[in-house]
Design brief:
- This protein is an alpha/beta fold.
- The protein has 7 helices and 6 strands; from the N terminus they run αααβββαβαβαβα.
- The chain folds into 2 domains: 49 residues, Orthogonal Bundle (Helicase, Ruva Protein, domain 3); 92 residues, Dna Topoisomerase Vi A Subunit, Chain: A, domain 2 (3-Layer(aba) Sandwich).
- Helix content is 41%, strand content 13%.
- α1 packs across α2 and α2 packs across α3.
- The longest helix is centred in the first third of the chain and has 18 residues.
- The protein is globular.
- The model has no long low-confidence stretch (mean pLDDT 91).
């Protein structure tokens, strides 16, 4: 789409959509056209939802989750286990854990992982908040649910070192062969992690 074929409002919409993960210029153009073809069913409700989210959604000061209340509904929920904190890289990881329904403790969003190449150091993440929460007397375990990347593992080791003198158990998610996975379809790193984590 050139500047002659669309007005500035449409070009701005396409440019903003193209900034979303997984959408390049071509996908953004398709999404914009789809929205513009159905203004009453899609475009207007989406615009209202975006405005509403921009006005009302905040990051929880306790765990970093996104919600319309602070502290978030997970942090204030009764019946969750205050003794266990699950640290994740991003809010999307927290949402994935919640969808699974397997964890009923508290969360802590780090906001990323340590990466010397990207210039992300300890002060760029919410590590101090995690350490402070781990020092609370009711906390017995910190689960490090970080991705099995080099940066994720570096962050795991950094946090484990920082918590070495604290009276909490530091655990991490197991890595290896997924349920239903076939060995000949797995990469070498996954097979190595599965072998090392065998039980």
């Amino acid at each position: 789409m050139t500047h002659r074929s669309a007005g500035p409002e449409i070009l701005r919409l396409i440019d903003l959509l193209a900034k979303l993960p997984g959408l390049g210029p071509r996908s953004a153009r398709r999404a914009a056209l789809h929205l513009l073809k159905r203004p009453d069913q899609l475009l207007t409700p989406l615009a209202a939802a975006l405005a509403d989210a921009a006005e009302k959604v905040v990051a929880c000061r306790e765990c970093g989750n996104f919600d319309t209340v602070d502290p978030c509904s997970i942090c204030t929920a009764a019946g969750r286990d205050d003794a266990v904190i699950c640290a994740v890289e991003q809010v999307g990881d927290l949402w994935a854990m919640e969808r699974s329904g397997v964890f009923r403790g508290r969360y802590h969003v780090l906001g990323g992982v340590l990466s010397a190449l990207d210039g992300v150091g300890p002060d760029d993440l919410n590590l101090s908040g995690l350490i402070a929460r781990a020092l609370r007397p009711e906390v017995r375990e910190v689960i490090l649910a970080l991705n099995a990347t080099v940066e994720g593992q570096t962050t795991v080791h950094y946090i484990a070192d920082r918590l070495a003198g604290v009276d909490v158990v530091v655990t991490r998610l197991a890595h290896g062969v997924p349920v239903g996975g076939e060995l000949d379809h797995l990469d070498d790193g996954t097979i190595a992690a599965a072998m090392a984590s065998r039980r």
